[in-house]
Amino acid sequence: MKHDVLYNSNVNIQNEKSKPDCLYYIGMEPKGEFVVSRDMEGKPLSYYLDDMWNWSIYNNGKKATFNFYVKLNNETIFSLCLKKEMKWIFFSLIWMKKGPILSFRTLSSYLSLLRALGLYLVDKNLTYKQFFSNNKYIDGFSNSINQGRMSKLGMLIRHCHLLFDINVMRSDKEGILLSISRKKHEYISGLYQHPPIPSRIYSNIIKVVKDDLDDISSSIDKIIELSNRCIEDPLLGLGRGGLKKKRARGERVYLEPGKASFLNLLEEYGLVSFFSRHNLRMDRQGLSSACSFIQKCVAVAIQIFSGMRISEVDSLPYNCIKEHILNGKVHYLIEGFTTKFNHGINLKAKWVTNNDGVTSIHLARKISDLIYSASQIRVHDEDRVLFASITQLPFSPGVKQEARAITSIKINQYVSEKTLEITNSDIDELKIIEPFRNWDKDEKIKVGEKWPFTSHQARRSLALYASHSGLVSLPSLKLQLKHITTEMTLYYAKGSELAVNIINPKSDHFANEYQRSQHFSQAQSYLNVIFDENSKLAGIHGLIVNRQSSSEHTIIFNDKAETIKKFQKGELSYRETFLGGCTLIGECDKRITNPFTECLDCASAIIKRDKLDKIILDQTNLIKMLDEGSFEWRKEKKELDYLLGFRDKYKWGAE
Fold it and tell me: CA within 20 to 30 Å of 66's CA: 38, 132, 200, 631, which one?
């Protein structure tokens, strides 16, 4: 990196004209007039000198900005230098870091970390370069951040060591990265993760949401009709307060004698009780609140009945619900996007849902139709979003914007108002599910106070109780919760074997929808392993698969439908494990004593090379943290030797 090199920006350009400037790296940051973003016509939107960069053009046209301002009591020369250094680091992530394009959301998370770090550095009177050169400071800062930021911090350490050409001992660098990885693992293991919702409260949330869905379903057509009338006539139902606001803006408006008040309109449409039940204002602005309330309710319902993240719900397209017929039975799939697999870039994904999820989507479409009609934006159905911004309605207060319609904050507010108060029995249940977490000292979860709902809890609780019910296997959970690894699926379902069984297989519960897709999911996971050309298999069943893959007379490779039928009949079974997969029909009693080595010689095991390598790496790192010669060290070292010996004795094909 010492010589001149041309660096092109790694951004999602719309056309060649919108491409930012290129950088010839000569060991220093670009000049202030360097163009970091351009519009479709090639006109500059933002320069390197700016403290706010307009990034909308590279975010598929959605409003997006990067703000380098760090809130301080007073700005000094030192803080200005830190901001300049922060901008250079952030710039280099886009222009110089190799790899795939980073999405706006991912870049924003890096910038958020850099800004938080900036506050820490001001307090310590350190530069960014000094910080990344000293493991003591890195370790101190890592103690104050959450798991998500720890992941980003590890990436920044590697990047900044190259950027600043920091010459540190390799052992020191690897040591701090291992420390951060260990803290991240502790975080994920349960110290700070989203808590599961106690079964009593979780059941009540589902009931309340379903009751609201029924209430909305019976009233939404009236709300839409009244909204359209108010859109057509800006003075309809306008009160004296609204009249004064219009006149203050310079509008010359007068109320016609005998014009109906908004309360009269609500009575005419039979909506007074609906507005009263949901604490909505009895004026035109209350219509906006009603539409917002409907969006929040259906969004959390979609989460509850699918396991989607709130960001995935918000990005759903208008035509997202699809029917899938399997063995003559109709299953409903939600087709949307996830960003978890592709560095923050949208990737197509599907979720299984039930009738309540379908109802929720249809209700959301009605509000979306109203908003698009009111905004007079002509967009084809395939280009519409399911959750359009309420601010586009003419009777909605505030500035018109294309901001995200649904956020976790809105969802949390909606559910938190309706949750039950925590009881001692709820705390006792949490202690059973996660016995190693100090629930008595959790400041957010206290007896007598309402349950502090967060949108991510809906996902974890779904995994927890669905797994315990026996209606959903781990592969199904993996597909449903959209996690790359089974480890994260196990994390969400951790403690499920101890949870209260709130799912009644005989009831019309949404978990039955999972049951109908369970065998299909298992078969798909099994077939994915078999047809993965990059997967190197070992283990007794893995060798059988290898032999079958080279045969022309095997059902598995000639008839996928027949394979799925075998899973439905219970003749085949598959679930993922830390080392690959297990084809045992029924429960396993071996992995209780040793989850890794017991699988290696099992007749039902499929061992994947990449997973085995990961376990060996994790085991090696674990041993480094133990005192050499101690009982724990000898025990873990013996297991590592067994894993290494197993790997060495197999011929894995071309390396």
Answer: 132
Positive or negative, the CA dihedral 177, 178, 183, 185 is: positive
CA dist 187 and 184 (Å) reads 5
Please report, as a single letter, which amino acid is at residue 649: K
Give the three-class secondary structure for 89: helix
Rounded CA-CA distance 176/184 in Å is 12
Single-letter amino acid, residue 391? T
Tokens (6 digits) for 409: 């904050």
Residues in the chain: 655
As beta bridge partners, residue 67 has 52
CA–CA distance, 521 with 3 (Å, rounded to integer)? 53
Residues 145, 237: one domain? no
Q: Which residues pair with 35 in a beta bridge?
A: 47
Q: How far apart are CA 549 and CA 516, in angstroms?
A: 29
d(CA 182, CA 625): 10
Predicted confidence (pLDDT) at residue 229 exceeds the cutoff of 80: yes
Question: pLDDT at position 513, please?
Answer: 40
- Do 592 and 642 belong to one domain? yes
Q: Which has the minimum average pLDDT: 114-118, 137-141, 239-243?
A: 239-243
Per-residue pLDDT averaged across 223-240, rounded? 85
221 and 366 co-located in one domain: yes
- Evaluate whether 236 touches 253 at the Cβ level (below 8 Å): no
Contact 5, 98 (CB under 8 A): no
Q: Does 635 reside within a domain? A: yes
Residue finishing a domain among 391, 407, 423: 407
CA nearest neighbour of 576 among 652, 459, 485? 485
pTM of full prediction above 0.70: no
With respect to residue 442, please indicate whether it lies within any of the assigned structural domains: no
Q: How far apart are CA 599 and CA 606, in angstroms?
A: 8
Report the C-alpha gap between 403 and 480 in whole angstroms. 27
421 DSSP 8-state letter: B
Q: Is residue 274 part of a domain?
A: yes
- On whether residue 224 sits in a domain, the answer given is yes
Number of domains observed in the structure of the chain: 3
SS3 call for 326: strand
pLDDT band at 423 (very low <50, low <70, confident <90, very high): very high
Summarised one tens digit per residue, pLDDT across range 476-511 is: 445 544 443 333 344 334 444 444 444 444 443 333
The answer for residues whose C-beta is within 8 angstroms of residue 305's C-beta and 6 or more apart is 353, 354, 356, 357, 360, 510
Residue 183 and residue 303 share a domain? no
Q: Are 141 and 242 part of one and the same domain? A: no
pLDDT digits over 38-78, tens only? 998 999 999 999 989 999 888 877 778 898 877 666 678 88
Backbone angles phi, psi at 114, to 5 degrees: -65, -35
For 227, the domain range is 207-307+354-407
Are 98 and 180 in a shared domain? yes
Residue 624: CB atoms within 10 Å:
11
Same domain, 186 and 211: no
Whole-number Å distance between alpha carbons of 212 and 360: 11
β pairing state of 5-7 and 23-25: antiparallel
Which CA distances in Å does 63 have to 55, 209, 393? Answer: 7, 31, 19
To which residue do tokens 């559910």 refer? 415
> Which of 158, 191, 224 is where one domain is finished?
191
Name the DSSP class of 408. Answer: H
Query: Do 97 and 246 have their domain in common?
Result: no
